[in-house]
Amino acid sequence: MPNVGLVSDKVENVNQTESKKIMLNDLNPAGTLPRYSAKRNLHRASFFCHAPQATQVSLVGDFNYWNPYTTPMVRQADGRWMASVELTHGYHEYQFLVDGKPELDPNATGKTRNALNQVVSLLAAS
Predict the structure, then answer these.
(1) Where in the chain is the domain with CATH 2.60.40.10?
(2) Who has greater pLDDT, 19 or 50?
(3) Gap between the terminal Cα atoms of the chain
(4) What is the rounded average pLDDT for all residues in the chain?
(5) pTM, 2 dp
């Protein structure tokens, strides 16, 4: 178990004086805060596919290993299909499977080619 100590540090301001407590331990001897990483934050993204005649629509992408069974989309009253997923910060490749046929998202951030050189939709999550 790491050795833990508590250090009190006075911070003076013209308007007030406050004490901050900084935890020191063997793993963090300087008492600094852990580094912030945007990649650890999750962002909710909602996807909509206009396919009123479809019987089944799935969302596939790098976030669900392109598995057509992981993220089925739900039909809305207006005929669009919707799915909502948590994504990490960055760019994500995806497409819709409409009755088993791949379709690009016209509302995507852009298009790119995946590892198989197929054109797929691109989303920037931030």
Answers:
(1) 38-125
(2) 50
(3) 37
(4) 83
(5) 0.69
